[in-house]
Amino acid sequence: MIDDTAKLRVAALIVAAGRGSRVGGSLPKQYRQLGGQSVLARTLALFERHPDIDSITTVIGPGDETLFQASAEGISKLAGFVTGGNTRQASCLAGLKALRAEKPDIVLLHDAARPFATPDLITRAIEAARRHDAAVPGLAVTDTIKQIDAEGFVTATPDRARLRSVQTPQAFAFDLILVSHLSAAAAGIGTLTDDGAVAEWAGHPLFIFEGETTNMKLTTESDFQHAEQFVSELAALGDVRTGTGFDVHAFTDGDHVWLNGLKIPHERALKGHSDADVGLHALTDAILGAIGDGDIGSHFPPSDPQWKGAASDRFLAHAVALVKARGGAIAHLDVTFLCEAPKIGPHREAMRARIAEIAGIPVDRVGVKATTTEQLGFTGRREGIAAMASATVRLPWH
Q1: Residues annotated as binding site?
Q2: Domain count, the chain
Q3: Known binding site for a divalent metal cation: residues?
Q4: Which of 133, 150, 186, 385 is most buried by a 10 A CB count?
Q5: Residue 280 maps to which CATH number?
Q6: 2 located within any domain
């Protein structure tokens, strides 16, 4: 088990030794240009920027040294590179051996051809390894899967609810995955297609955490066409804005409160002209602040009787619509409650899901937290609830 009482040392091992034959051409796919950068350069930069990554080691193909050096320019966390083997499994083992002198606590093994993983995915991978020792990201399978025999006839239809398609970065306690790879190699097992399979073969429980739909692996020419479109869309939304919001509502008589779009039973209610959803009000102001378009009061004046008792999801949806009208997108929403009660923890995931639904964004782009004020001030005296929020918005450059 990983000792998490001290700061963990985390190494990233980028697997870039493949030739990418399904894409075609003489240039390995990890060195192809994508929006003015090589695929590998984009992948290395992702790990370079993450604050919890201490070092980056890359496994490259024989003769690719010059291509690699060009892609690795400016990567300060680079510990070096090692030449890979004939299979992905052999390349990963070569990289893990190179990391032995560093002795990291956790290693993340990531395909160079997945340049669109997010910092959030890396953070969750590290946490999953800390908790479970061996963990890989996975996505639920949406298509029905058929198992066939050598003649093409169906032999089984697995329950897709229990199936996952796995991605990288795959995260492990370093000693566990190193010993697993060494044992597999010693046993002559060399056809395992991912590091999770190596850990499974060695008898270790493997945990699946949620992956990302945008974390595509570039394998075919069609994948590169989609990736170019994706990069173009990101570049078009390069004006990144951050806004903040703050709201307060006092308690009054009642038996429930509205928080982040959920009706939560409580011994008191919140007083306000609308439904007094302090969380959604703060989020709405945060978005309006990011686009420089007034505040919630200017769009929905409390003096206007039409907003009496209105559901606050309308306010948040309006702010989101204003962003979309400018050709922009919501990148992230985060809200923190300051209150003694009700407890937010039991409702956190439902709140995240509701905000994501209103805003039309993935739930992994929503944060919900809560804290007390140690019984200080009006929230400490249980006189009301405060919420502060931030919104990150991407707009087109003009």
Answers
A1: 247-249, 273-274, 281, 295-297, 371-374, 378, 381
A2: 2
A3: 247, 249, 281
A4: 385
A5: 3.30.1330.50
A6: no
| Nearest in space to 353 (alpha carbons), one of 340, 366, 341, 344 | 366
| Domain of residue 200, residue span | 10-235
Cα-trace Rg, the chain: 25
pLDDT tens for the 398 residues of the chain, in order: 666 657 899 999 999 998 765 555 679 999 999 888 999 999 999 999 999 999 999 999 999 999 999 999 999 999 999 999 999 999 999 999 999 999 999 999 999 999 999 999 999 999 999 999 999 999 999 999 999 999 999 999 999 999 999 999 999 999 999 999 999 999 999 999 999 999 999 999 999 999 999 999 999 999 999 999 888 877 777 889 999 999 999 999 999 999 999 999 999 999 998 999 999 999 999 999 999 999 999 999 988 888 888 999 999 999 999 999 888 899 999 999 999 999 999 999 999 999 999 999 999 999 999 999 999 999 999 999 999 999 999 988 75
Angle between helices 174-186 and 88-98 (to 10 degrees): 130
Residue 5 lies in a domain: no
Q: 244 forms bridges with which residues in the sheet?
A: 390
Between strands 164-166 and 262-265, the pairing is unpaired
DSSP 262: E
* Same domain flag for 217 and 243: no
Q: Are residues 169 and 144 in the same domain?
A: yes
